[in-house]
Amino acid sequence: MQGPCCCLLLFLCLLLLPLHATGLEDPREPLPLPFSTSDPTAHLLRSRPSAPVRPYSLSLSPEDYRYAPKPRHLRPGRLRRLLGPAFDPFWMSSEEPLGRNLSAKEDLETMSRELAEGSGRHRRKLWKEVEGMELPPELPADMARPLRRWLVERALCRLTSAWVDLGPIFWPRWVRHTACGTSPPACSWPPGMACRPAQLAHLKLLAWHCWAALPPGPPHCAWRQIPYPVVVACKCSCR
């Protein structure tokens, strides 16, 4: 194939290539900061907090952070003012929560409006799907409703949680990590599907952020709000 058709085909192929394959840079991608406390958190400290981030992907190893706030930087009153209305006692705590090892047994839906709304939304969706199923014609009418209810309860995915210490460079340093329950291991009938995250929410935390100063001066550091994704709903899924 020669002539204009060949040129058009080549042009279309170039359009389909990813930017890194063509040697070009995406002008929409923000430039990385010149310096941060840690490479694992650099993507959270960019100017686009809406960029997708996997839940609980921050490194919690002290070796990953060069600088830590001093006691004068950790005054709770000032940090609370910096975080403002984003402080949510259900999700975060500046001190180690009492009885934190029992959190997996809590009924989280009764403690958080956000989790209750997410659970209710998925329950309604399940009922709609189950009511559209064709049941065997020989099934007695008085058994149809209980069977549909059993299928819905079987497919519901509940959340568990545990308090995690993020360390001194985050405030509040204690954050509730939620996860999809694994009991029972299968949520479908016949078995084969499992509960997986279906909806995320982004908390706001403070991170101790440092950037390079003109040599030979020390780096400048300050608290900065960052998005912190958490799981708020799960669904029964194959993947």
TrEMBL record:
The keyword Phosphoprotein does not apply. Keywords: Chondrogenesis, Developmental protein, Differentiation, Disulfide bond, Secreted, Signal. One of its GO terms (cellular component) is extracellular space. One of its GO terms (biological process) is negative regulation of BMP signaling pathway. It is found in: Secreted. PANTHER family: BONE MORPHOGENETIC PROTEIN INHIBITOR, NOGGIN (PTHR10494), NOGGIN (PTHR10494:SF6). This is Noggin. The lineage of its organism: Eukaryota, Metazoa, Chordata, Craniata, Vertebrata.
